[in-house]
Specification:
Elements: H1 24-27, H2 33-42, E1 46-47, E2 53-55, E3 58-59, E4 61-67, H3 71-87, E5 90-96, H4 98-107, E6 112-113, H5 124-129, H6 145-156, H7 160-176, E7 196-197, E8 200-201, E9 207-208, E10 213-214
Parallel strand pairs: 4-5, 4-6
Antiparallel strand pairs: 1-2, 2-3, 7-10, 8-9
Helix pairs in contact: 6-7
Amino acid sequence: MTLGHAPIQQGPISSTVSGYWPEIKEIGYKHNLTKAGMLLENAGYTYNNAGVLEKDGHPLQLILLVSSAAEELLKLASILKEQFKTMGVDIKVETKSINTLSNETMSGHYSLYLDGWDWPDSSLMFGLFHSSMLGTTNRSQVNDPELDRILEEMVYTANAETNRKAAYKAQSYIVENAIIIPFYTPTEYSALNNRIKDSSFSLTGNLILFDAYIDTK
């Protein structure tokens, strides 16, 4: 995991991504067990003798899918399981191969799915939430004409200011409609001796040493 070094992420894209809306932190959801408990109570859930929330005699159990090859996400899944347990929600973590996971999430046949993305700009949201991406990268199964309109304005316009405003609006819409629950922005560190010259970073933040050399002077 990130050992406390990763900032909380309030929206669908991180602060390092082009098109990020700084005000998203003002409307993003916060950790509030009291409010969550009230919402569940209002939805008709009560605690049984085992301390698990249930409704009409059925315990509130959700299955969380995660890739068996994603070590950091597996650790996060374990933490989420314990956090939900304090709320009386039974989370069952299921690990699957990337291929199996891809097929199941593309079809929408799942309760919860844990994933992460690397992308340099706000167009990521088009791939994740536009209805034309159903059956591929739109794993949330979102089919919302209003969101489609905002995302299309964001990616199809040639005007930088219009693009920026649409990206801001898309982030606000996604958070206000709770389409996904963001957790944190992973932080990576690269330590280089100052004799290393011509190193660079990719658009997704990976260190590139292809043209690098050691200054022997």
